[in-house]
Structures are given as structure tokens and as C-alpha cells.
Specification:
Four Helix Bundle (Hemerythrin (Met), subunit A)
Length: 162
């Protein structure tokens, strides 16, 4: 066995930037009660805005659904729009603790992504999803750990996976 000598260089990390960052940080001002209250107010306003936005999207989805019922032969565009609106709701709902709305919207999106043929069964499935999303927002159901929420999530996942 041959041993070759290799040189090893030890590099000492430069902590100067880390030391500089902490010098002027006044934690009393950064984490003051006033700053925390301002942050809470911002989150509350954004939650309210999202809630109103989600209700508008749900209203549009219901309008598209009614159009589907009145003209089922012209359904492709309406179904696609409902699917994308469901995806929009899903995309932000979790950030505002509407986990159940996230799951139900995801289920609707996945179901419609399969491009099912419009039928009575499809009508019932879409209506159930829209009603469930409406219930989440109208009852301000947050989180998803409740037993009823878990049962609903299981049912909607079963629908979207078939």
C-alpha cells in the first residue's frame, strides 16, 4: 500500500458579520407590545380580506354551477373555471387556518381535473363540495383537527381519488 502525503488546510470561519448584526439590534423595540399588536392587526385585516375574497370566489363558483345546470352541454369552460377557483381557495385557505376549506377545495380541484363527464353524480359531488366550503366559511370553521372535520376530509379525499 502506498501512502501519499496530502496537505490539509484548516479554514477558520469569519464571525465578524454575525457579531456586527447583533450590535445594534434593540430587542426591546423589536419585540415591543406595540409591534406585536401592529402585527396582530395586520394579520386580522389580511384574514378579513381573504375571507371576503374566498366568499366572492365561492359566489362565482355557485354561479358557474347554476350555469352548468341550465346548459350542461356547454360545460367544459365552466368546469375548468370552477376547478381553478377551487385551487385559488385551496392555495390560501391554510395560511388563515381554514384547513378544512383547503382539503375540500383540493378534493374538488382533483375531482374536476380528471375531466369527468357531466352527470347527475358529478352534479351531486360538485354541489356537496360547494356546500361544504360554504359551511366552513359561514360557520368560520378553523383548523381541521375536529372529529367532524376529519370525517369530512376522509369522505372528500375518497371522492377525489375515485
Amino acid at each position: 500500500m502506498s501512502h501519499t502525503s496530502q496537505s490539509v488546510t484548516v479554514i477558520k470561519p469569519d464571525y465578524s458579520l454575525k457579531q456586527e448584526i447583533g450590535k445594534d439590534l434593540d430587542l426591546e423595540k423589536t419585540l415591543s407590545v406595540e409591534k406585536v399588536e401592529q402585527a396582530v392587526a395586520v394579520v386580522a385585516e389580511e384574514t378579513k380580506e381573504y375571507f371576503e375574497e374566498a366568499l366572492e370566489k365561492l359566489k362565482e363558483m355557485n354561479s358557474l354551477f347554476r350555469r352548468l345546470l341550465s346548459a350542461p352541454e356547454d360545460n367544459e369552460a365552466a368546469i375548468e373555471k370552477i376547478r381553478f377557483l377551487a385551487l385559488d381557495i385551496k392555495g390560501k385557505a391554510g395560511m388563515f387556518d381554514y384547513g378544512l376549506a383547503t382539503e375540500i377545495s383540493d378534493s374538488l380541484h382533483k375531482f374536476l381535473a380528471k375531466k369527468p363527464i357531466f352527470s347527475e353524480e358529478m352534479r351531486i359531488i360538485i354541489r356537496a363540495h360547494l356546500d361544504a366550503i360554504h359551511a366552513v366559511f359561514s360557520q368560520n370553521i378553523k383548523g381541521e383537527s375536529h372529529t367532524m372535520a376529519q370525517a369530512l376530509i376522509k369522505e372528500f379525499k375518497a371522492i377525489s381519488s375515485n
